[in-house]
Amino acid sequence: MKIIQASHLVKSFGAGDEKRNVLDDVSVEINKGEFVTVMGPSGSGKSTLLFVLSGMDGADSGKVSFDGKDLSSLKDNELADLRRTEMGFVFQKAALLSNLNILDNIILPSVRGNAKHTAKLTERAKGLMKKAGIEGLEERDLTQVSGGQLQRAGICRALMGNPNIIFGDEPTGALNSKTAAEIMDILAEINEDGTAILLVTHDAIVAAKSERILFMLDGKIASEMALPKFKGERLDERVEAVAAKMREIGI
Ligand SMILES: Nc1ncnc2c1ncn2[C@@H]1O[C@H](COP(=O)(O)OP(=O)(O)OP(=O)(O)O)[C@@H](O)[C@H]1O
């Protein structure tokens, strides 16, 4: 069962001599509940792929099906609904609003058009905060919490709609290694509960915790690597295997 089926995606930026394909005939499938990471050098098209697969940006050609729905056939409001109800997004910086406290930041995207359910949403947000290890920080301003706590809040916000997939662009990129590992543990738990995860990362340790790594080079998926589901053991060996693969393909 696939959550994403994308075929022959092409996307270019620039014009004339400057024009280049940032996605150059990329086809990729993500299974329901799968944990996939995307690696590759800076500028190889990783973020662009994430944006196109999540419908945040369109491709010049090619097709993306999300749970069987062709994204290009959806109207803007249908696409927005799909993103709100089926997808969660986590970025390097949590991009929370500085004039709201942590709790309000988490529930805000869900409250829109749904104001009469605020009490229920607050309850859900508090449950997620507990799971993410930030209970008690509801009333704090953004300046009163750490970077790791902000990222946990960002994950809670992404989970509010109970998505079937989480897209992450370097969600641990701005964190120290201990906090990054804690955030990865939370994402692994979410994945255990059946949510697919697609993460862009430069970090071999992050990639080593996934089930499949897509290596991008110059707008193409140059190689893939499958790994057994990570159960918390042999991480060093997995990281070394990822590093060896990266050396082999010249990343
Ligand atoms: N909106 C845009 N307009 C013009 N060029 C763009 C745009 N977005 C991305 N690009 C270019 O497309 C290429 C791929 O960008 P992308 O962000 O997908 O790469 P990436 O692999 O995620 O890189 P990084 O690891 O540095 O984040 C880059 O050369 C970038 O400059």
Automatic annotation (TrEMBL):
UniProt GO MF annotations: ATP binding; ATP hydrolysis activity; transmembrane transporter activity
Keyword entries, A-Z: ATP-binding, Nucleotide-binding, Transport
The cross-references to InterPro entries, in alphabetical order and at most eight, read: AAA+_ATPase (IPR003593), ABC_transporter-like_ATP-bd (IPR003439), ABC_transporter-like_CS (IPR017871), MacB-like_ATP-bd (IPR017911), P-loop_NTPase (IPR027417)
The molecule here is called ABC transporter ATP-binding protein
Assigned protein family: Belongs to the ABC transporter superfamily.
List the taxonomic lineage: Bacteria, Bacillati, Bacillota, Bacilli, Bacillales
The residue ranges of the ABC transporter domain are: 4-243
Q: Which organism is it from?
A: Paenibacillus oryzae
Mention any one GO cellular component term assigned to this protein in its UniProt record: membrane protein complex
User: In the UniProt record, does the keyword Nucleotide-binding occur?
Assistant: yes
Signal sequence, start to end: none
Keyword Nucleotide-binding attached: yes
